Amino acid sequence: MGTYDLIKQAIQGKKQIHASYKGYARQMCPHVIGWKNGKAHALFYQFGGQSSSGHFPGWRCLDLDDLTSISVVDGPWHTGHSHSQSQTCVDEVDVEV
Questions:
Q1: Residues 15-63: tens digit of each pLDDT
Q2: What is the bridge-based pairing of β-strands 24-36 and 92-96?
Q3: Where are the domains positioned within the chain?
Q4: 28 has which bridge partners?
Q5: What's the 3-state SS for 21-75?
Q6: Cα 19 to Cα 15: distance, rounded to the nearest angstrom
Q7: Do 72 and 26 meet the contact criterion of CB atoms below 8 Å apart?
């Protein structure tokens, strides 16, 4: 199964994703998947692992081409406390929580 389908199923089942993104191990919950400028993107809430900025928990907009070593994991669902702004990560939404 490809990356896009794994993330899509994780959104539909409210499952965690553990993966690597640009060399950083990340623990995240995907919330939105679709397309932006012709490329597959997803909006995640990162609750654990590492990031280049060192800041999390927080929202991450990731290009799915750069996501590797993906596993779908059972566990608590994590999300942000505030949704005061509309997401701009995905222009053409396929699936969202």
A1: 999 999 999 999 999 999 999 999 999 999 999 999 888 777 899 999 9
A2: antiparallel
A3: 3-78+86-91
A4: 17, 46
A5: ECCEEEEEEEEEEEEECCEEEEEEEEEEECCCCCCCCEEEEEEHHHEEEEEEECC
A6: 13
A7: no
